[in-house]
What does this fold into?
Amino acid sequence: MLSILNKMKNSRRYFIKIAGMAGLSLASANALYAEYQEQEKEFKDLPGRIDKYQKKHKQRFNMSGYAAPKISTVRIGIIGTGNRGSHHAGTISRVSDVEIKAAADVLPERFGRIKKNLNSTDHNPEYYSGSDEAWKELCERKDLDLILITTPTYMHAKMAVYAMEQGKHVITEVPAAVRIEECWEIVKTSERTKKHCMMMENYTFMPFHMTTLNMAKQGFFGEIVHGDGAYNTSKMGNNFNKNMYWNMWWLRMYGSRNGNIYPTHGMGPIAQMMNINRGDRFDFVVSVESKDFMMQNKAKKLAKDDPFFEEFAKMDYRGNMSSMLIKTKEGRTLNIQHDATSPSPHNLIHGVYGTKGSVLYDPAPPKICTGNHRWADKNTYDQLMGKFKPGLLHKFEDFRKGLGANLQSGHGGSDLINVWHIIDCLRTGLPLDQDVYDAAAFSAVVELSEWSVRNNSNSIKVPDFTAGAWKTNKSNMDINLDNGDGDTKILS
Ligand SMILES: NC(=O)c1ccc[n+]([C@@H]2O[C@H](COP(=O)([O-])OP(=O)(O)OC[C@H]3O[C@@H](n4cnc5c(N)ncnc54)[C@H](O)[C@@H]3O)[C@@H](O)[C@H]2O)c1
It folds into this structure.
């Protein structure tokens, strides 16, 4: 880290960023936001910076397939106890052999919901608040194995780097980072510390997505050629709700950024079907977006009656529809959308097209084509879903039967499956389903798509965070439990 600082000593802005990552001095939460906004001015150097980083990067240790030493009881600290952090706490409490020992939030009033979710469980975390830096104290505890990061997106990487430096594994919400340098930092830190840094791309664990991933792994669709994915779902109510998100952070993001600021739910599951970072990798990105037809109008309307919204009425919002095309090294294409404004139905698309067949998740009902130019009838569909049901889903079927409960959880059940498998792999000493290279590549497109939008939709290279290891890295997402499994249980 010091050598980077020496080389970069002429760049004050860079110093602030790296210093924040290393914990040499920590910018406040609002300063983190301000610093992120400052990045706009650096955009014109982005292709050059990508080349420079790529040339000087050597893989120190390959984290793909890495299995850390077993941990009998996984002791967890949570940073950010807002909507998602509180929800995760409730989900984690349904898994055996874990202990939520600590939770941090800049706003102590945010502890109400996590306390409610942990009420009548065995978990009794110590709470950290009172400063923007309280989360660091949590990371420094000696009795934690794993840090879960559920703060606003532009804080994830700094917190992840600091947590790994403190000897903790990290699981982070999506995206894991919002800037290219942050992507490199999580990769370098994970390789140096041999700590996992997994981005919890939970939609990949939805039953349909896992089953069709299993089909793809077994060659049912032939060569995957193209995927259409999206996270198109209106957040207009949430984003303009004064009590929903910390410091209106999502609205501020829409009011200041361009490009796909939330790419992973549409892209991650398709990237897994394409074996990205293990046999193929993202090559370049182009992005285009519509005008904003809705957000500023809404902010202006609200500002007429409520001065709180005056600052938001002046913002120049990201276009309502963000579209991003990605070409892979092996010639595949992805078309990823993000629209958080349209009053249309929730739509993930998840259309994946291969040389022998295809799938289409949205609009419902989900469909499979066996290569005969038609969507399969219900009988054939049901047979295929049964035949290719992966081991992880069978495992959950056993849990369900054992408990006599339906085991519902957020996002089509994916949240509980994702969390259970992380805990079981850590306890059993197995590789996690997604590695730091996935976290970096799937998050890098945030900045790359913004650069493209602001540069007439020109294309921009995606860094190779694996430093060439993508050619030989083995398959991940152990949805069939081929690596084995442990005795971690679901409690309720
Ligand atoms: N995977 C999914 O399905 C999914 C769903 C929702 C949200 N998310 C992700 O979860 C993350 C959190 O989203 P959310 O909806 O919970 O937002 P939120 O605003 O409800 O929660 C963020 C929390 O971080 C806290 N925070 C801010 N600065 C902090 C600091 N310096 N130290 C400690 N805590 C701090 C805030 O007080 C707040 O409680 C985001 O990254 C989002 O993208 C993922």
Summary: Residues 2-56 form one domain. The CA atoms of residues 433 and 477 lie 4 Å apart. The longest strand covers residues 224-232.
